[in-house]
Prior knowledge:
Blueprint: H1 3-16, H2 20-34, H3 38-42, H4 55-68, H5 73-76, H6 91-104, H7 106-113, H8 125-138, E1 143-148, E2 162-165, E3 168-170, E4 178-179, H9 189-197, E5 203-210, H10 219-227, H11 234-249, E6 253-256, H12 259-264, E7 273-279, H13 287-302, E8 309-316, E9 327-333, E10 339-344, E11 351-352
Parallel strand pairs: 1-5, 1-7, 2-4, 5-6, 7-8
Antiparallel strand pairs: 2-3, 8-9, 9-10, 10-11
Helix pairs in contact: 1-2, 2-6, 4-7, 4-10, 8-9
Amino acid sequence: MDLDRQFDLQARACERLGSPLYAALCRSMIDDIRDGGPCARVLTGYEQSELAAAVPLRLLAAVHALALSGAAPELAACYPSAGGKSEPGSEPLVWKAFREVVDTREEWIRDWLTRPPQTNEVGRSVPLLAGLLAAVDATPLPIRLLELGSSAGLNLRADHFRWRAGDIAWGPEGSPVTVPDAWQGPVPGWLAEAVRRHPSVTVVERRGCDPTPLDPASPRDALALRSYVWPDQVERFARLDGALRVAARVPAEVSRIGAADFLAGIEPIPGVLTVVWHSVMWQYVPKPEWAAVSAELDRLAATTGPGSGFAHIAFEPQDTSDDRHGFRLTARIGTQPPIVLARAKPHGVPAFLYSGDQPEPAPS
């Protein structure tokens, strides 16, 4: 897909998801690319990249990292994430500072562009935890939590986060990660009942996989995580910083391995509920590998017995170019077919029920 179209789609997504700053920058970059400016030069070789490569997000994150690290002070003054201010009408000044960074740090940015996106969005823990509670309600056993595309493994610690919706809340009080207004509209009845029956869960193992995992204890990797958060969305920064604090005290293992090979080494454990989950990652997995992942998931589902359990929880888009109706949260519990539990905005909050889906399910 040509770059004009990619940046236009990204601008529209940023508008819908509450980042006017990035929407304006994406539109300025479209003009700069057409005019052969610094953005066109730094993106040489990416002119016909696939949409799943997320080239606009890579470029935005590269420049954001420079602002966060102190290497681009004029731009940092325009980014709330770096202690600056972003006000209506300041878009030309922001663009001038942004373009200057691209023009003067081309080599550094081109190196950054070779790395895959690393979002590890903490807000996506809200739909994932809803799926986890559905699985635990159906199979009340200690949990082995396995994540595909873990990045830094922050959401492997999601049971240490807290979300609220009206008078319903789940997760430890005093958690460094608190997500208010986690649900838009009423919380599904099945979830409210699961929250009542399971005020906490027991996780006995936390493991994940990623082709290029990040270490949350590494300042360099933490910068990469922060750079992919949009600079005018400070609530997302607060969740990420809280999740990094949780990661410092709750261990989890993330292996440098593909999803199919990772699952091939997993066998059921008696007395344990094995949960495989992932969020907004399958667009980055080649189709042949995803076919192998699906076969492994089928194998694990078939092992479900009276002494052990299995669930596959996915929070993924149906179509990466259209998120108007949110991304779907699906759950496959044991040998049952997958069901749609809910939907959520691409960053995970708020979650909601969508009238176009089947009537509210009752996992059992």
